[in-house]
Write a structure and sequence with these properties.
Blueprint lengths: L11 E9 L18 E7 L6 E3 L5 H4 L12 H18 L7 E4 L7 H6 L4 E4 L3 H9 L4 E2 L5 H9 L4 E7 L8 H11 E12 L1 H6 L12 E2 L2 H10 L2 E9 L5 E8 L8 H13 L4 H5 L1 H21 L4 E4 L3 H10 L9 E2 L17 E2 L2 H6 L3 E4 L5 H7 L9 E4 L5 E2 L2
Parallel strand pairs: 4-5, 4-7, 5-6, 7-8, 12-13, 12-15, 13-14, 15-16
Antiparallel strand pairs: 1-2, 2-3, 3-9, 8-11, 10-11, 16-17
Amino acid sequence: MKCRHCQTELQHVFLDLGHAPPSNAYLSEQALHAPEVTFPLKLFVCDHCWLVQTEDYARADVLFTSDYAYFSSTSAGWLAHAKAYCEKITRKLALNADSFVIEVASNDGYLLKNFVAAGIPCLGIEPTASTADAAERIGVPVLREFFGTATATALAKQGRTADLICGNNVYAHVPDINDFTHGLRIALKQGGTINLEFPHLKNLIAQNQFDTVYHEHFSYLSLIAVDRIFKAAGLRIFDLEALPTHGGSLRVYGCHADDPRPTADAVFAMLAEEQAFGLQDLAVYRNFQQRADKVKNDFLAFLIEQKRAGKTLAAYGAAAKGNTLMNYAGLKRDLIAFVCDAAQSKQNRFMPGSHIPICHPAELARHKPDWIVILPWNIAAEVAQQQKDAKSWGGRFVVAVPEIKVLP
């Protein structure tokens, strides 16, 4: 296999999580009686451009289907994050009724609805019908396809280049990162700005976030790698922000390579920080597997210990990261009876691989489990606050990543 960006032959395994089904491929009851497709879940690191990437097996159209079950609006915290971003970037770029905003992977309209409300023309690009339908119901215009050079060229021919192109947690999801990035350049107006947010590879390694690895994430991104990819596409990163979202993310600001805006000190500082951390040193990548194994083994030991003590266990958050953890640990219903989730699109379905049922959050109060494992640890505080009534029956919350931790 060759690197998706620079075509260097890949030789260095970063992480091997065995075989697993796609993490968002939630199952109906009928589907439980049919064979389930799994793919190898293995990451390589390129020792030339330092892009971390999955082994090529699953196609994007297999992973992002018409009934895609992830809806961004489920999290109140994420909605607040999107609203604050829209207000900030509108002021920063002086966006108005004469501007044009494109969001790539616009999901259910969680972000663009803020521009619609402000009277700023916008367009969402979203290939999954389930989320596109939801966006259109709230007045967000949507182009239903995968983004790349073909889509960008068609928009440019129509005179619909953008003052702002934004993409939250999409850059890691694209199988052809070069085509996608060239598309950003084509669809960007001269003087326009690109904003991409993505989980930071440095945080993944530093905080043992191996459960953020799943097939839908084709790439795991550092600024070192993204800077190279942008430059190869005729773009330049001129600023960035470090964000707390998703366990630590970067928001990069991009522009055409010949844009007169200077490159901020923050960009050079982050490149130096990544180099000092060792993101261009294979030793950092080779040591990660044993750290992931320790998290998995400690989590299993905790569950078994509680089960032997007669305690009951459930989980909250049918998130993709939870599926990675549970499938790597080989969990079934004997250790975790059910998973609750606020998203109606996931309720009354089953977790891929483990086949653990997904229920409405009200099931927690009905069954009163002794332990509630919060699988999306990045919103653990939000979940614990929402489900605080569990304390009335002595229920306790625990997360497994980056280590077993009982919440106060």
